[in-house]
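Hi everyone,

Forwarding the result from last night's run.
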Amino acid sequence: MSLATGSRNRPSAPRDEVQRGLIESRTLVEITALDHAVLLAHAIPDASSELVAEVRAAGELGILARMRAIGAALRAHLEASACSDLTRHPSDTVRGWAWFALAAEPGSPRELVALILPAADDSHFGVREWAWMAVRDRLAAELEEGIAALAELTSDPSERIRRFASETLRPRGVWAKRIAVLGAEPDRGLPILEPLRADPSTYVQDSVANWINDAAKSSPEWARDLAIRWVRESPGPETRRILRRGLRSLDDARP
C-alpha cells in the first residue's frame, strides 16, 4: 500500500499502543491505518479546538497531504519550541508531524537541509521518508542550491544521511511530484550521484540506482552513457550493482 493512499482505503486499526503514540509503528500498514485525531488527543491532550478541528479535517486527505496539513496546523497553533519537543516523541508519526512543521520555517536550502538532518538519520524508516518529503519541494524550487547542499552530505558516515542525499531530489521520486528539469537535464544531479557511485551500503546503492532509473525514463541515452563511463572508471561490484538496477528499464544497456 502506498503512502499516498487515501482514507477510504485504510486497513484495519493498528495496535492500541501505536494508536495512542506510546510506541513506534512496525509497518507501513500501521502507519496508514492511524487515526490522526485520536493520536493527537494522546500526544497533545491540551490541543486547542482549532488544532483538533484541523487535524480531524486532514484525516480525509491522502497520507502525504495529511502529514503536510497537520504539520502546517502544528506550526500555526504551537510555538516552535513545542514542535521541536515533538521531534523526540515516542511515536514516529508524531515526530513526522513535527518535522513537517519545522520544515516550513523560512531559510536557505543549506539551512533547511541542516534542520532536517536528525529526521533523515532517524532510526525509524517512516520518519526517514517524511524527512525528504518535507523538504523536497523547497529544494526543487531552488535546485542549484538544493543540489549543492545535498552534495555536501555524500561523504557523511551515516548511510541514512547519504541515502537522504540521493533520495530527496530523485527526478520522479516516490509519492512526489516530478522534477521535470532533472528528467530532462540529469547531469545537474551528478554532484550528488558521482560521490555515491561505489557506495558500500546497499541502502544507498538502491537509492542511487532509482535516481538513474528515474532519469532513464526520459533521458535513456544519458543513462547509457553514464553506465559506460562508470563501469570504466569504477569497475567494482558496488557500481555494477547500482547500474544493473538503475538500467532495469533499458534492457539493452545493462552492464
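The mean pLDDT is 93.

Cheers,
N.
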